[in-house]
């Protein structure tokens, strides 16, 4: 894959990350001030549960109907969180949020067993695939964010008032519960359209990390938003560039970049605000050096222990092989080497094993394309099995293009839609029929 195609893939994900930084860092400030840090995880789990229920009812994932089903369930959760917010209640709201998350996760686990390929689909909903988003998804997210952002811009003073001092707002005649519900509803809408592409972990980090850094730096909302956007942009851009240069998974690298920026900001704030800055700087460097030494020591010890265990296992394996050789009868021809036996197996069998063993959609797509070259009939079944898992559209298109080049007529697959869509089900029937006649 050349640099141009890689940049073409990463540009939509980069734009989506910037949109998320802008929207979620603002909402994160409200979340921190309300002390409901884990509401994002709860609403994300609710949204995932809604998508799973819709899937069991025949609604394909990543469709408007699926998002609508998730949003409906999220609205119910918003009502629960609205009613649970009370300063006079002996039960903190975080306890309610945690219970909602646990219940939603338990129900999702029960339903996964009832869904065809349920584990793969729920994994897709929870972990996302930020690197493989398309411009259509970026446009949808941008439209939703724009609508929510405009609503919060118009009523930002009111939202800030009920966030910081709900008792005073209620005393002044503000319908706090109504506006609380609207806050959670719009928040849930943002989460619903975000987790499908970015996953729960990235959305949580985008929500909390820039807001934490901004709140540490200033008390004014405007400056908090600007600092959150700036630091989030630096961490996101740095993480994506590192993932591109190192050929690493984008989501975890971006999260790691946020961790580094957060540590640097915390260290700078500690030094700048200290009465004795020189002493604070020495303390910060000493603590950082101590952590680095501890980490290096753990890595060295782990490597030594792993090498010793590997060597011990290799010795036992060699002893077992020698014992087996000693048990052969005199004159008996030794068994052929494993390499020779493997070479006698059909190439397509090796490709099937490679497809089953790999979790990388790119490697799986390559294995499917090679299987199609080796045996059309077997390769077609592997290709349909691969496409049924709804891989990222970029790799699904590679397999579809390969099928189109080998079969007499175009297959008609639409990689932007799930495999369960009618157009792709009809394409699968045509592919099997065409392969049978070759």
Describe the secondary-structure layout.
Elements: H1 3-34, H2 39-56, H3 64-84, H4 93-112, H5 118-127, H6 135-154, H7 156-164, H8 166-171, H9 176-217, H10 221-246, H11 250-273, H12 277-326, H13 338-344, H14 347-357, H15 361-374, H16 376-388, H17 393-406, H18 422-437
Helix pairs in contact: 1-6, 1-9, 1-10, 2-3, 2-4, 2-5, 2-9, 3-9, 5-9, 6-9, 9-10, 9-11, 10-11, 11-12, 14-15, 15-16, 15-17, 16-17, 16-18
Tell me about this structure.
With 438 residues, the chain is an all-alpha fold. Among the domains are: 3-199, ABC transporter involved in vitamin B12 uptake, BtuC, CATH 1.10.3470.10; 345-437. 81% of the residues lie in helices and 0% in strands. It has helices at residues 3-34, 39-56, 64-84, 93-112, 118-127, 135-154, 156-164, 166-171, 176-217, 221-246, 250-273, 277-326, 338-344, 347-357, 361-374, 376-388, 393-406, 422-437. The chain starts with a helix and ends with a helix. Residues 334-345 have low confidence and may be disordered.
Q: What is the chain-wise order of helices and strands?
A: HHHHHHHHHHHHHHHHHH
Number of helices: 18
Q: Please state the second-level CATH architecture of the domain at 3-199.
A: Orthogonal Bundle
Q: CATH superfamily membership of the domain at 3-199, which one?
A: ABC transporter involved in vitamin B12 uptake, BtuC
Strand content: under 5%
Report helical residue fraction.
over 70%
Q: Which CATH class of the domain at 3-199 applies here?
A: Mainly Alpha
At the third CATH level, what is the topology name of the domain at 3-199? ABC transporter involved in vitamin B12 uptake, BtuC
